[in-house]
Amino acid sequence: MLMLMGYFDGSGSHSNSKVLTLCGFLGEGSAWENFCDPWNAVLDKPQWPNRPKELHMYDCAHALGDFAGWSYTQRLALVGDCVDVVIQSGIFAVGSGAFTDIFSDLDANDKLLLHSERLGDRYDLVFQYCVQQVAHWTKTLWDGEKVGLIFDVENEPQASEYLKLHNRYRTSVEFGPYLAGADFESSIEMLPLQAADLLAYGTYQWALKQRFPLMDEPDFSSIPAFLRMIKNISADGGIYTIEALRTLLADITRKRPLP
Fold first, then answer.
1. In Å, how far are 25, 27, 93 from 185, measured between CA atoms?
2. What does the pLDDT look like over 49-96, one tens digit per residue?
3. In the chain, which ranges are continuous DSSP H helix?
4. CATH for the stretch 5-255
5. Average per-residue pLDDT for the chain
6. Structure pTM?
7. Stronger pLDDT, 228 or 39, i.e. the higher one
8. How far apart are CA 129 and CA 239, in angstroms?
9. Distance of alpha carbon 130 from alpha carbon 138, whole angstroms
10. C-beta separation of 72 from 100 below 8 A
11. Packing angle between helix 242-255 and helix 108-116, nearest 10 degrees?
């Protein structure tokens, strides 16, 4: 067995968020071994003002918590070094996102149709898309293996919702053969969850910039580092817009028998 694992975290779950993202990395044991020591080595670098407990992107972007008092240059350098670790480790990125307002223009019948397919809210959408990618790439890259999923326990209550969705999909004919189980862990103890947070936060900021180009960015922009990471790793992902949701509805309708 390869001990294939996937580590996932989300961004944009706060009440006034315009987009929700769920992102993570898949890899076998050797890839995660290649990841953990270099990641710790970045956090241990003596030139930082202090040794952060973890890379938490929101705190890093806003100079909060462990990153209070860090200069812009120091925080940017840390993120850049972490991106280098991800690129060199051989882990595979997957992710999804959904704009919060995509359900607002749908009529009642369309909403009922989505609910019947277990796609009735943004958490359903992003999680199913990620599970589809996990199943596809597990079969493509590690045929015959199952993947265990770990969610960041600090991303509550969303992590509990994702665990419930996982347990539902684990019993399905379509996805069950690829899912070995799921659990919660702390990102302080489980370093790959910090990489998932890096990817989820970058996806969140990138999606906002695409949809709302005039929106003020944080003083610390994660988008250049995010784009460099995506350019240099194998990755699969997508963002749900209203247009994408209407395409999904059309696909569901075509598959349904006529009354």
1. 15, 17, 19
2. 999 999 999 999 999 999 999 999 999 999 999 999 999 998 999 999
3. 29-43, 57-62, 72-89, 108-116, 122-141, 158-170, 192-211, 223-231, 242-255
4. 3.30.420
5. 86
6. 0.88
7. 39
8. 10
9. 12
10. no
11. 70
